[in-house]
Write the C-alpha cells for this entry.
Amino acid sequence: METFGDTLSRVMKRLSAADVFCGHGYESIHDEAVALILGAAGLPQEQSYDLLAAPFPPSAQRRLDGLLHGRCEDRVPVAYLLGEAWLAGTCFTCDDRALVPRSPIAHLLREGCWPWWPKTAPPEIIIDLCCGGGSLGIIAAHAFPSAAVFLSDIDQRALALAQENIERCVTEGTVRCVQAHLLASLASGSVDLIVANPPYVSGAEMGQLPPEYAHEPRGALQADEEGVALAVEVLKDAARVLSDRGLLILEVGESAEALEQRLPSVPLIWVDLPAGGSGVAAVSAQELRDWSAAGNL
Ligand SMILES: C[S@@+](CC[C@H](N)C(=O)[O-])C[C@H]1O[C@@H](n2cnc3c(N)ncnc32)[C@H](O)[C@@H]1O
C-alpha cells in the first residue's frame, strides 16, 4: 500500500509536471503537496515526520484526485481548494470572495510593527483598509488586543468573508466590518494605525499573471494609473485621517517603482520585512502632513 511518503513524491511530480505557480500562500511545490495530502486525509497541518511511513488511506485517494484536478488542470490556488489559508500563524477561512491572504504586512503586524510603532503606547484605533477576507486586521487585533479594529472594504462579498473570519479567529468583540470607499467616511485625526493593502496591479501586468490569479476577484488586484491610483489616494487622505501619532503601513508590491515615479518628491521609506517580500512603505502622520503642506502629495 502507498505510504504518505510515496504519495508526497507522486503529488510533487504531478505538480511539477503541470508547472503550477506557487505564489498564493505556499512558497514551493513541496509545501503545496503537503497541504493537499493532509487536506485530502483530513489531518491537521502540523504533523511529525513519522507520518511519512504510515499508509495513505484509500478513502482519501478520491478526494486527493479531485484536489489535484482542481490544482493542475483548473489552476485553482490550494487555499481555495481547501477552503482555508494560513498566514503568520493564524488559519483563515478562504474562498474566491477575496484574495488568498498572503500580505507580508502580516509578519510586521505580528511583531507589533516594531520599530515603526513604539512598544510603550499601543494604537487605540486601527483600520485594515481594503481588508479582503480580513486577515491583516485580525492579526493586528491579536498583536494589539486593547485596540478597536475596523476591517474596511468596498466589496460586500469580501466583507461577508471577513465577518466569518472575525467569528472564527477573534474572541473579544473588538473587531468590526465597515463598507466604505478607502478612507472617505472617516473623521479627521481619528485613526492611529492604517494598514492598507489596496489593489495595485496595472492593466498591462494583469495580462501577464499566471492563470492562478484568474480565480481571484479582479477588483482586488487591478488598479488604474499603472497600478498606483488607489495607493496615491490613500497617501493623500491618510494625511487627514491619522491622529498626530499615527502611522500608515502601505503595500504596493511590485508597483513600488511606479509609485515613486508618480510622486517623485515624496521620499517613501520601504520596510525591511521580517519574513521577506517587498513594496511595503511605513509613513508617519507628520511626514504625510509635511509632504501635503509642501504640495508634494
Ligand atoms: C489586495 S486585496 C486585499 C487583500 C487583503 N488585505 C487580504 O490580505 O486578504 C484589495 C481589496 O481592496 C478592495 N477594494 C478595491 N477597491 C476599493 C475601494 N475603492 N475602497 C475600498 N476597498 C477597495 C477589494 O475589494 C479587495 O478586497
